[in-house]
Amino acid sequence: MQDIKKIATFGFLTAVLVSMSIIAGGKIIAYAQTNPAIPSTTDQGTTNISTDSTSMSGMNMSSAAGGSKGTTVTRDSVTVLLEGKTIPAKGFIHLYDSTPYMINAGHIALHVPCDTSSTPIVDALVGPAPNLTKTQPEIIKELSKPGTMCVYHVDIESDPAKKIYQTDVAIQNPSDKPITFPASSGVTIGVNEIQPSVPGG
Predict the structure, then answer these.
(1) Distance, CA of 154 to CA of 2 (rounded, Å)
(2) Smaller CB count within 10 Å for the chain: N or C?
(3) Beta bridge partners of residue 96, listed in sequence order
(4) DSSP strand E in 68-200: where?
(5) In this predicted model, what pLDDT tens digit does every residue of 14-40 receive, in sequence order?
(6) Taking 50 as the threshold, does the pLDDT of residue 53 lie above it?
(7) Residue boundaries of the structural domains of the chain
(8) Rg (CA), the chain
(9) Domain covering 70-195 assigned CATH 2.60.120 in the classification
């Protein structure tokens, strides 16, 4: 019995020593997955990505292909389900804030109650808080039922040359009575392109 234990122990130690010598004398091949938080140089046509593996301090914002200088192509989407939520009279719900980046290209989709003339019961507001401005949402007729629920969309764009900086999105109750949202009410905000250096941001 003692001999069997010695042979087993010797065999185990021999295997360990052989594997250590192979590792020490040979090449080790490792496979790594890419990190989705670090964009590749071919990701969505971006450029100016630092390839210096020893320092990240030289990394710049990537320029979007076809976009304006200093912009970054991104994809951020937020959906807020409003069923059962209440906005008090003249109150609002703040839905999105991109500060200190301005939204160069984005979109709002609203599925909210509407009157018989297809006017939404809430206002969609955009701009740099606290200076939000009412938008003019466009109805999507194929998905709307005037008098009950309607679907709208609004494009979001900044224009630094005109000092227009869109960073925030909110919905406001313009009436003197509280609004409680019915089933299937919601807002989706999609942001496709951002740019740094919002004044005061």
Answers:
(1) 82
(2) N
(3) 169
(4) 72-81, 86-87, 92-97, 102-113, 123-127, 133-134, 138-139, 149-156, 168-172, 179-180, 186-195
(5) 544 444 444 444 433 333 333 343 344
(6) no
(7) 70-195
(8) 28
(9) yes
